[in-house]
Amino acid sequence: MELSKYEVFLKTVELGNITQAAEFLGYTQPAVSRVIADLEREWGVPLLIRGRVGVSLTPEGKHLLPRIRSVCAAQRELENSVDELLGLEGGAIRVGAFHSVAIQWLPQIIRSFLELYPKMDIQLTFDLEYSSVESMLIQGEVDCAFLTLPLNLHTKPPLCTRFLKRDPLCAVLPIDHPLAHADCYPISRFAQDDFIPIQETRDRDMTNIFTSCNVKPNIRYYTKDSYTIASLVESGLGVSIMSELMLGRIPYRVACIPLDPPQYRDIATAVRPGPLSPAVSRFLEHACLWVSQHAS
To answer: Which PANTHER family does the record cross-reference, listed alphabetically (predicted)?
Structure first.
C-alpha cells in the first residue's frame, strides 16, 4: 500500500520540519508541502504554522492529530490482516529502541531475521531516552519496542512487556584512576570525583540511583552522548556510569568496574495490548531467542 497523505503529515509533525520529512520519506520538499496544503484545503482548516526554522501544529492540527493517528493505525491493522492471509512473505515491522540496544543488538537481530524472511521491511527508530521510546509505542508510531523495566510511563491498559536480560551498570574511570583496578567503585565516591552524567530530560535513572544511596554527585559536565562521556573520561576529566551493554562498543581506553552497591537495568520487549500481527509476533520471538543465545 502506498504511503498515505496522513502519514506524510504525521512524519512532518514528528520531525517539525517539512524539508527533513521530505528527506526521510524520499519525497521532494514541494511534494510534502503540496500534500499538507491539499489536506488543509480539503478540510478547510489550517493544520501547521510555518516558521523560519520549522513547523508546529495549529490548534486545529492539535485537535485532529489523534484522529489522524487512529486512521493510520487502522490502515496498518488492515495491512497486517492482509499479511496474515498471505503469510510472512512481505509487510513492514516498525521497531523502537533505546540507543545501546539499537547499536549492540538490533543490527544482528534484524540481519538474522531477514535471512529467514527476506521480503520483510524492518523500520528502526531509536532515542536516547527510554521514555521517548515508550511514547512512540503508546502513540502507535512503532509496533514493538525495546524498553527498560519498570516502565517510566503508565497507561491504561498497560503495555505488555517480556523480560529479556538484566544489564549491569558500571563505573567508567580513567585508566590511571586510583580505583581503576579495584574490585568495585563505591557509589559514595561520586560525591568526591568529578562526575559526567548523560543529561536526563524525562528519564531519571541516574537521579534514582543517587537518591536511593543518599549521595549527591559532584557533577562536572553534562552531555547527551555516551561516546562524548567516554572521551572525557579517557582524558582524565571525570568519571561516569554506563551500562555493560553500551560499554561493549566504546572505542576508548577507560576502566570499567562494578558499582557498590550493584546497580542494574532490566531490558524487555513491549507491545500495546491486543492481538499482534504474525510478522510482529514472529520478530519478537526471534529477538528473544537471539538475546538468549548471544547476549548471555
So the answer is: HTH-TYPE TRANSCRIPTIONAL REGULATOR BSDA (PTHR30419:SF28), HTH-TYPE TRANSCRIPTIONAL REGULATOR YBHD (PTHR30419)
CATH fold for domain 67-165+267-295: D-Maltodextrin-Binding Protein; domain 2 (3.40.190)
Rounded CA gap, 250 and 195, in Å? 18
Q: Cα separations (Å) of 159 from 138, 140, 268?
A: 8, 12, 11
Q: What is the pLDDT of residue 119?
A: 83
For the chain, which residues make up each domain, given as ranges? 3-62, 67-165+267-295, 167-261
Task: Identify whether the C-beta of residue 220 lies closer than 8 Å to the C-beta of residue 237.
Answer: yes
To 5 degrees, how large is the angle CA 17–CA 19–CA 24?
A: 95
pLDDT in tens, 63-105: 999 999 888 888 877 776 666 655 566 678 999 999 999 999 9
Helix residue ranges, H only, the chain: 5-15, 18-25, 29-43, 59-86, 99-104, 106-116, 130-138, 205-212, 226-234, 244-247, 278-294
| Cis preceding linkage at 107, omega within 30 | no
Q: How does DSSP assign 134-185, residue by residue?
A: HHHHHTTS-SEEEEEES-SS--SSPPEEEEEEEEEEEEEEETTSTTTTSS-E
